[in-house]
Amino acid sequence: MSALLLRGARSPGSAREIDVRLADGHVASVTPVGEAEVRHGDEVVDARGTTVLPGLVDAHVHWTQWAQVRRRVDVGAARDPEEVATTMAGAATGGPGMVVGHGFRAALWSRPPHKEMLERAAPGVPIALVSDDLHAVWLSPAALVRLGREHPTGLLREHEAFAVMPALSAGPDVAELDRWVAAASAEAAARGLTAVRDFEYDDTVAAWSRRAADGGLALRVDAAVWEPWLAATLDRGHRTGDAVADLVRVGPFKILADGSLNTRTAACHHAYPDPGDGYGALNIDPGDLRDLMVRVARDGLHPAVHAIGDRANAVVLDAFAHVDGPGRVEHAQLVAPEDVARFARPGLVASVQPAHLVDDRDVAERHWPDATARAYPYADLVAAGARLELGSDAPVAAPDPWLAIAAAVARTGDERPPWHPEQSLDVATALRASCGGRLELRLGDPADVVLVEEDPLHADPGTLRAMPVRATVLAGRVTHRGAA
Predict the structure, then answer these.
(1) Which InterPro entries does the record match to this protein (predicted)?
(2) What's the rounded mean pLDDT across residues 167-195?
(3) 466 sits in which H/E element
């Protein structure tokens, strides 16, 4: 049977060249260069000068939103709400549809967003903006009417925001949306990505099963389950880890314990500087959270609980003490010192997004001024024995695993010095957390492989961020070929 033979690559940190044979969707052999037999029908790839790694994984994405965001008005660079309003007015075409923007970051603004700012800039135009962190939606008066809502300011947060987001995604038909998703997946493969864990607020299992039916997915997908689709998931007999289509598995069960830093709704032990924000807020009662986690775990679904503030992380860890089985804490951005060791619980994953520390360091300094030494505490978590997985939270950050690795290592993304460098990860640890926990290929592994032009273990942060990818292979099929 034909195979893909990668000839002359090197393992990370090694000068020794090897041949890697990929056959039947798995790693069939790893031998010194020249020892692998070339069989009839084999495709031989000259991999000399590259480093070979297990395929890279983004442990937390919202993939449909990532595919859509690139077709929305980008307001991420706006310095105040008026600039956002002016940008959106300029994007209005006069057509009947909603004008949708993405990426506003209000945490450093001196004035909060308000619906009348949008109305003054574009009278009568239905405008909707999704915040960078996906936890707020800012609507103009016409948009509120279009959505059948009333609100005093037009700034919806948390559950109110989540309730209107599906309507903002209703523009393209399913076929077009799937084409956008496929294009985004192909671009991600060009950065070495071979798998994502998709937390889209949708029936993601059904959506990805539909996409897989056409064949040729560019990524493996673990499709998370949300509560509105829990009953249907269990009726189908699905459990976390079940294969439902080629390259698609049932993922964990997603629960939101609190909000976010940028929306100032992350539940914290300390108060936010603005009295109106209080201590943030839990999105679910602690007792209800515990009961829900216990129930879904008994039904075979692994809980994956969003927790950003230190109070939320403590509440989630308390609940996990009652859960029999694996689970995940998504984000873990602020952790009390007494809770760090609790992340070492067997079967628990701390799923973190290092690009957020680069993007949000100024926000954290303003809103968590006395707690930044405990923010994004990656080194402490690793030292305590926690299992880390890196991701992007796309579209909050781009789904580029090299950006996440570089941020975890450098703790900066610009000319400023590292932010709390005592929490930096070494390259090998960050890389393992992006490659399924290992750096070298093993016999029998899935044939998900990436060839990169530089050895990551010897690369500086700038090289890591821009890491050139020679080729990406998914299940033995080449999904990206770069210039040799």
Answers:
(1) Amidohydro_3, Metal-dep_hydrolase_composite, Metal_Hydrolase
(2) 91
(3) none
Residues 348 and 461 in one domain: no
Where in the sequence is the domain holding 392, given as residue range(s)?
56-64+175-438
Instruction: Give how many domains the chain has, as a whole number.
Output: 3
Task: Out of 35-44, 310-319, 343-352, 376-385, pick the least confident.
Answer: 35-44
Which alpha helices (DSSP H) does 286-439 contain, by range? 286-298, 310-320, 355-367, 378-383, 401-410, 427-432
DSSP state of 394: B
What is the pLDDT at residue 484?
A: 64
Three-class SS state of 444 = coil
Which residues lie closer than 8 Å to 222 by C-beta, 6 or more apart?
195, 196, 197, 198, 249, 250, 251, 252
CB-based contact 259:265 (threshold 8 Å): yes
Examine the domain organization and report whether 247 and 98 are in the same domain: no
Which of these three, 168, 188, 213, is where a domain ends? 168
- Which residues have C-beta within 8 Å of that of residue 239, sequence separation ≥ 6? 250, 299, 300, 301
pLDDT of residue 1: 55
Which pLDDT band holds residue 170 (cuts at 50, 70, 90)? low
Q: Does residue 308 sit in the same domain as residue 446? A: no
Q: How far apart are CA 1 and CA 287, in angstroms?
A: 56
362, 368 in Cβ contact below 8 A? no
Within this chain, do residues 430 and 474 fall inside the same structural domain, yes or no?
no
pLDDT bin (cut points 50, 70, 90) of residue 2 is: confident
